[in-house]
Write a structure and sequence with these properties.
single chain; two-stranded antiparallel sheet; two-stranded antiparallel ribbon; globular
Length: 94
């Protein structure tokens, strides 16, 4: 049986990292639940958002639809918003 010896300083450092990671996760969850991605009626159905963020957008008929709010802070969603040719995608406070 192998036993790792940990100094009090190492134990404190590990606890701090775990607490910070938990705080960041809770913070991200709160942002996700207080904000919402919406597509307004100006959508022309070009599909750029779907090509950029497939986990968040999908085509439904001739318009894009939001299929998930899970990745609201991801780079791909931010790129989809930035590159929408008619600025139809926004993030609102929910």
């Amino acid at each position: 049986m192998k036993v790792d010896v940990v100094t009090p300083e190492q134990a404190q450092a590990t606890t701090s990292v775990q607490q910070n990671s938990s705080s960041e996760t809770v913070s991200q969850m709160l942002v996700q639940h207080t904000q919402k991605i919406v597509i307004n009626n100006g959508c022309i159905g070009c599909g750029k958002c779907v090509a950029t963020a497939r986990n968040t957008f999908a085509m439904q008929g001739s318009r894009a639809q939001v299929i998930s709010q899970e990745y609201i802070q991801s780079a791909s969603v931010q790129d989809a918003i930035a590159h929408c040719p008619v600025s139809a995608i926004t993030i609102i406070e929910a």
